[in-house]
Specification:
mainly alpha
Length: 102
């Protein structure tokens, strides 16, 4: 029978007050491989590839990160014909703060 969380606990993972290892109670070997794979996936193979992705992202109206995430998740480059998917990505953006001083 699982323990009930404390009254002021939201049931999520600990945030800044966690004093244990970064991998928590899981396998450290899997954590280390996952972390290195994630770094390798986000790092472009060359400067030219990064510039190519940036140009394609700007052409469809996305950020480099949004475009690269779509490429990593779906495995395809977006173009002008993918307007529906681009609009869906734009709608999923977090709301940006509005500044009265801009």
């Amino acid at each position: 029978m699982p323990r009930m969380p404390k009254r002021n606990h939201n049931g999520g993972p600990p945030l800044d007050d966690y004093k244990g290892p970064a991998w928590g109670k899981g396998d450290p070997h899997r954590f280390i491989h996952w972390r290195s794979a994630q770094k390798a996936a986000w790092k472009p193979k060359s400067r030219d590839i990064a510039l190519f992705r940036l140009a394609k992202a700007e052409a469809v109206g996305l950020t480099y990160e949004e475009y690269t995430l779509e490429l990593l998740e779906r495995g395809r480059h977006l173009n002008a014909d993918d307007g529906g998917r681009v609009d869906e990505i734009k709608r999923s953006r977090k709301r940006r703060r509005f500044s009265h001083f801009d």
